[in-house]
Recover the amino acids of this structure.
């Protein structure tokens, strides 16, 4: 009797409010949409992870002590990797949100999903980086997005500071312990390498792009303390 009364009340409310059942196909579409968004979030997370890996591998953390006194330089070195990392975690959060809204989302526990999503993004990002795709994407962003290009170019400009012990350029001539290097501004420097171990032969070739740490004696002579290759991502 009580059950019948409750059923009647519910039935009256349904008729009064004109409540109609939602078609099942809407639930199917909604479920598929959240799954698709979750997969897309992982894919975009992988893309962002590949750029983050690319930038981190380009960093030389032993050089950071040289720019700690220059807050702008330190921000340039640290900013992009941190921004990409933040964006990757935002996409990971989006993935978890979308998965929790699928028809079986209540079964997913946040921590395992978080770990699985991070691993998936990093694995995909590592694969994209290993194929050289992250370098191509970085180049594409530099060519088409001005703010990104400005930040990346400022990283290059850090190596046009012989007065601060950082310079770079192209080897024009090699003579004993002197390298004649044309810097990025077009000036020729005599780089003295007598005080350091002989660099590998591949770094001593005419036309080779190199980066040099040391100090300048005047506007033409630079005493080298370290010579490093000029990485492709630094080229404008």
């Amino acid at each position: 009797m009580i059950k019948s009364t409750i059923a009647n009340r519910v039935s009256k409310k349904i008729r009064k409010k004109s409540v109609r059942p939602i078609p099942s196909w809407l639930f199917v579409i909604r479920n598929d949409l959240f799954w698709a968004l979750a997969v897309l979030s992982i894919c975009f997370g992988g893309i962002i992870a590949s750029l983050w890996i690319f930038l981190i591998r380009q960093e030389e953390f032993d050089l950071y002590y040289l720019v700690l006194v220059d807050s702008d330089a330190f921000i340039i070195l640290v900013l992009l990797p941190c921004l990409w990392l933040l964006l990757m975690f935002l996409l990971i959060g989006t993935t978890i949100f979308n998965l929790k809204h699928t028809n079986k989302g209540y079964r997913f526990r946040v921590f395992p999903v978080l770990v699985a999503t991070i691993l998936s993004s990093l694995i995909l990002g590592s694969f994209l980086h290993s194929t050289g795709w992250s370098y191509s994407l970085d180049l594409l962003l530099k060519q088409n997005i001005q703010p990104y290009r400005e930040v990346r170019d400022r990283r290059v400009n850090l190596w046009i500071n012989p007065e601060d012990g950082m310079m770079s350029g192209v080897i024009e001539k090699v003579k004993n312990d002197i390298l004649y290097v044309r810097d990025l501004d077009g000036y020729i420097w005599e780089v003295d390498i007598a005080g350091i171990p002989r660099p590998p032969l591949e770094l001593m070739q005419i036309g080779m792009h190199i980066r040099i740490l040391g100090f300048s004696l005047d506007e033409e002579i630079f005493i080298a303390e370290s010579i490093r290759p000029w990485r492709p991502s630094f080229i404008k």
